[in-house]
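In the previous chapter we treated chains in isolation. Here, by contrast, the input contains four separate entities that must be folded as one system, with a combined length of 246 residues.
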Amino acid sequence: MAATSKLVHPKVFSECSKQLLAINDALDILRGKWKIQIIGSLTFGKKRFTEMQREVRGITARMLSKELKELEINELVLRTVHNTTPVTVEYELTDYGKTLDKVIEGLRDWGVKHRKRIIKKQS
Amino acid sequence: MAATSKLVHPKVFSECSKQLLAINDALDILRGKWKIQIIGSLTFGKKRFTEMQREVRGITARMLSKELKELEINELVLRTVHNTTPVTVEYELTDYGKTLDKVIEGLRDWGVKHRKRIIKKQS
DNA sequence: TATATCGGTATACTTTAGGTAAGTAGTAAC
DNA sequence: GTTACTACTTACCTAAAGTATACCGATATA
């Protein structure tokens, strides 16, 4: 006897697919090792380039520059150049960037719990 | 005159760094094109392999298999083989996997809003 | 006998992500 | 005139991620 294939109700199926599409849209913008961390660092306020380089552990100037550019294009981050010498550049979240608060917070909270769990398992 | 480097208060700095570490921990497990989508699809309940292949648009058997294995190793997903013919295999979120609810939800909600925004800008 | 299903695996390949290292302009301090 | 600072850019390279396609055993169906 062949396994009966429990068909998902079309309504449920399309609902799930639609939501996966949304997740995909979000990931398209946030994917990679650095973007979410960069946004995370900017939730603490305006930052200068070198400041972020120090804060986001392990990131190189190349990656920071590249990722910030993409975030700027997607209107999540605002870049402001100040006429000091040498020039200073400030990055901050746009209002739209700030709408990612819940995502960042969720990821951060889960990460904290996850780290605790891993450490507990090792001991 | 050189720009004065506004030093961040050590307490604020370490707090930010600590939180970025947590975000990094979370991302280590969830990074890539598919993992979050797979978990997202499982928030709707148990799924069989082929069912997921249909649901997660564009994923190949190879990737689905690979990603599910990694999620299983990290105890986010449980795999159950049923003795039907042909065999059926069910995947579901573990209790620990379910703790990602907030993250998935946040990403999904943001994705929905983001898609609306993009469509609006195009018109 | 031929074909289909389920849950994959094997192999080969292409693409993208990310790292390394060096260099840049403009200014200013030593 | 050499060095230092800020905020990058460029060229190059590797490793990881992802894709395409064919195939597997067991069984059931046409």
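Residues 33-122 of chain A form a domain with the Arc Repressor Mutant, subunit A fold (CATH 1.10.10.10). Chain A has one domain: 33-122. Compare these points with the single-chain example from earlier in the chapter.
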